[in-house]
Design a protein that fits this description.
Elements (H helix, E strand, L loop, with lengths): L1 H40 L7 H19 L4 H17 L3
Length: 91
């Protein structure tokens, strides 16, 4: 039973990391395409920096949530919230 729980935790972490890596790959690919389009169509105005910056903020916080803030203290908060929801009962 304990091995199954460890496996499920590890699987969840790996899936979260893979989700981040996919997000990062799409971010890089799309932004390279936007840079190329911008430089071909209107090199006098570099508008590609706006989606690069805006989406970059999202990628940054996604990475932070996976690699920095996935520690035990947040797991404890999550577990308490789950327990509260169970006590309330599901509709």
């Amino acid at each position: 039973m304990e091995n199954q729980e460890a496996y499920q935790r590890a699987k969840k972490k790996v899936e979260a990391k893979m989700g981040f890596y996919m997000h990062l790959a799409v971010y890089i690919g799309v932004n390279i395409l936007l840079i190329i389009i911008n430089l071909i169509t209107s090199p006098q105005y570099l508008w590609f920096i706006w989606p690069l910056f805006g989406w970059g903020i999202g990628v940054f916080f996604h990475g932070m949530s996976i690699f920095v803030f996935s520690g035990r203290k947040f797991k404890g908060i999550k577990e308490r919230m789950i327990e509260q929801e169970i006590k309330k009962g599901s509709p």
